[in-house]
Amino acid sequence: GRAAIASYLRSESFRGFLAQRAGKSLRADVRVAPLSFTGMNVYGEGLHAQGRPGASFRDLRVEGVRAELSLRRFFERVWQVDSLHAERVQLSLDRPPSAAAPPAPPPPEKAAPESANRPGWFPNRVEIARAEVSALELRWAGGGVTGMAAEMSPQEGGWKITGSGGRVEHRGQPPLDIQSVRLLYRAPALFVQSAELRQPGGGAIRVTGDVQTDRALQLHADFEGIALTPLLPDDWRVRLHGKANGEVDIRSPLPARGSPDLRGKLELTEGDLEALPVLDQIALFTRTQQFRRLKLTRASAEFEKTGERLEVRNLIAEAARLLRIEGNFNIVGDQIDGTFKVGVTASSLQWLPGSQERVFTESHDGYLWAPMRLTGPVNKPQDDLTPRLASAAGEVLLDTAQGTVKDAIKKGTDVLKGALDLFLTPPK
Model pTM? Predict the structure, then answer.
């Protein structure tokens, strides 16, 4: 009997059985490379699977496989794999080709199918007690995971997956190092029980949520000390700096169509705001250079991004004892439209004629306040506060000049009248 088992395990029929079983579980066309045995230890170059329409992946490659096979559940009709190790696993999560797509060319080598050569009393399924991967690579449109070590074991009708190491990268975003990952996979759902990612040099993102591979993903991310500048559009990377703390909800259909929807609240610490035209104008008018680059003592906002539209609400940005900005704005494409209240200290306005009487007319919380509208291209927005400040200063200067002229005319008239009186009045 052991000789019959050994002969079957080394046959093309057993490879066909493995490919057929793996293909059924994965909804894929699977090829298994030739296997070699040392006792019940199995070695192979790996397998290659191509997802069929409806599968949750496009392509899977497993390389450098070692497995420990056990016969203890043979009479339960189970090939028991006590441990499975793969040096490298590459998984492409792009959408498989549709049923209408032309069929792929046949592979150069086709594993033998499961055949009648397998005796009917041999096991008809495979169960794996534990699996580990030295380097796991996941790829999706625009990014992926590289170099993560992972361990997997059966749990609750699915697979418990833990991982560490490696890096996450996505187009246009800074890379994140993987500290730890705990997942539960029950097809077609992947539950993210916890995942901790870190920016190189500091800052952490902690993620929970679930991914329905055939429908959508919903994730919740907590930010702690994440450098904000690399996350911003290019035009704002020179203007705003600091570390972000807060939370973000992420939603996206699968397969993804464009960027995901985002919603959350963030606070900024160690913030710097600079190179804004309105601040440069205020610095020029008030003769206070501190306005050109503000050290933010407080900054927070709620936001929601859907498609090309970004809506920011309850924005507060403050440089204590100098400036505070409150308001809301929207960005659609590259156009911004926002309504704000700008508060400055009275001492900052001492060099700006008419500003307190005509522009900054409201006073509370230690600041003098004025409304401001901001519109136009994000990289070069226009505000309506600067023209009002210039107009107020001009009006004051005009009023002063007119008063001076009137005084001079009155004095000249008085002098002239006195002279005429002197000459025209006859002597007594």
Answer: 0.78
